[in-house]
Write a structure and sequence with these properties.
single chain, 186 residues, mainly alpha, 87% helix
């Protein structure tokens, strides 16, 4: 769920950042809406999203998915908009001055400059969401967090400790893999 939510948030954030960036945003109103929605999603803490969505969707995987999706999309949108403004402004301005239309500017000017940094942020989001998925599972009663909570409350500490060890191994493996990918991309 953490990987799927991160990937879906990545897709949403790419579109929202293009619309909300000072460099690529075509409408002031759309920029304000995109940055406002991203700030709203980003500023509500993950446990609050989990509890709010728990009331709507009950105890199931959809609750955790949407909690991770909302907060990750908010964070990634903000980061992507800043990356676009910092790293793609010159190419955007040059192509726009040459008379190139909007879509080719995005495809040939903005994305080649920003895509490696976007992927780096996606890898970071996956790392973070894997760690946060245990907390969401405890709060929503699903996934590995549910198992940890179940074992911990029934005084089965060896099984609860095993779950913590598994989470640590998974997070370390994802961290090692993402660092290797970052070295290749950047």
């Amino acid at each position: 769920i953490a990987v799927v939510a991160s990937t879906a948030a990545f897709c949403i954030a790419c579109i929202a950042a293009l619309a909300g960036s000072q460099t690529t945003g075509r409408s002031i109103g759309l920029r304000i809406i995109c940055t406002g929605i991203a700030s709203f999603f980003r500023n509500i803490p993950l446990p609050a999203w989990s509890i709010l969505l728990l009331l709507s969707f009950r105890q199931n995987a959809v609750t955790g998915f949407f909690a991770l999706l909302f907060i990750t999309a908010g964070h990634l949108t903000r980061a992507f908009a800043e990356i676009i403004d910092c790293h793609a402004e010159e190419s955007h301005t040059a192509l726009q001055a040459a008379g190139v239309s909007y879509l080719p500017i995005i495809i040939h000017g903005v994305l080649p400059n920003t895509l490696p940094l976007f992927i780096s942020w996606l890898l970071y989001a996956i790392e973070t969401n894997v760690r946060d998925s245990a907390l969401i599972g405890i709060l929503t009663g699903t996934g590995i967090g549910f198992l940890f909570n179940l074992y911990f409350k029934s005084f089965r500490y060896s099984e609860a400790g095993l779950i913590i060890c598994i989470l640590m191994i998974i997070v370390l493996a994802i961290d090692t893999l993402s660092n290797a990918i970052r070295r290749i991309l950047l």
